[in-house]
Amino acid sequence: GYRVLAVDQSAASLAVLERRAKAAGLRDRVSTLVADLAEPLALQAALPAQPDAAIAMDVLEHLDEPQRLVRNAAALLAPGGRFLFHTLNRTLACRLLYLELAPRLIRHSPSDVHHWDALVPPADLQRWLELEGFRPADWGGMGPPLLQRATWELLTSRAIRSPMRFAYRKDLSLGYLGAAERLSPYSPRCAARQGWEALAKP
């Protein structure tokens, strides 16, 4: 199996991960690092080698400069490495569900977890990935099915006691996930994107 380095600015959040990894018998495969994702030097120092993948699940929509995270992932990954992501789309449907409805339904939920201007349209992420030397793959949507126990609990008690399930879907209007392959900096496509075609190998 893979070894995982989890990075977060919150030591408390990483402590929760460590406890859960230990309970699952995976503590020896999970390392944690309190660091800023926007500062790649700390990540490079903590990695024994270039990772096979960088995973940003529900991260991009919380950053002031999400393109900077994409750039840092490109710097960390070797050619062929994968950048995997899930983020929220900047659509009316997403705003109604995640920014308006969810904070009102979930008891004690902060009202400022998500901000409209920080949500990431797929076209923006596609452009950032290509600019930073990635080949985007097919993307898919994801959202919570309405017919599940957790939804009923939320509507009746404003609390979720059962696991909240999410389902894959073709519609990207709520949120979307995907993977992008890191290209070689000498590939014609990557070189052309970065403005130094003369260095591209045939």
In short:
The protein is an alpha/beta fold and 202 residues long. 35% of the residues lie in helices and 20% in strands.
Can you walk me through this structure?
By secondary structure, the chain is α/β, with parallel strands linked by helices. Helices cover 35% and strands 20% of the residues. The chain has 7 helices and 8 strands, in the order E-H-E-H-E-H-E-H-H-E-E-H-E-E-H. The protein has helices at 11-23, 40-46, 66-76, 92-105, 122-131, 149-157, 188-193; strands at residues 4-8, 30-34, 53-57, 82-88, 134-136, 140-143, 167-169, 175-182. The strands form 2 sheets. Strands 3, 4, 5, 6, 7 and 8 form a 6-stranded mixed beta sheet that branches.
How would you classify the helix and strand content by structural class? alpha/beta
Q: What is the number of helical segments per DSSP (H or I, 4+ residues)?
A: 7
Q: What's the helix-strand series? A: EHEHEHEHHEEHEEH
Average residue pLDDT = 86
- Apparent shape: globular
- First-residue to last-residue Cα separation: 36 Å
The biggest sheet amounts to:
6 strands, mixed
Q: What is the CA-atom radius of gyration, in angstroms? A: 19 Å
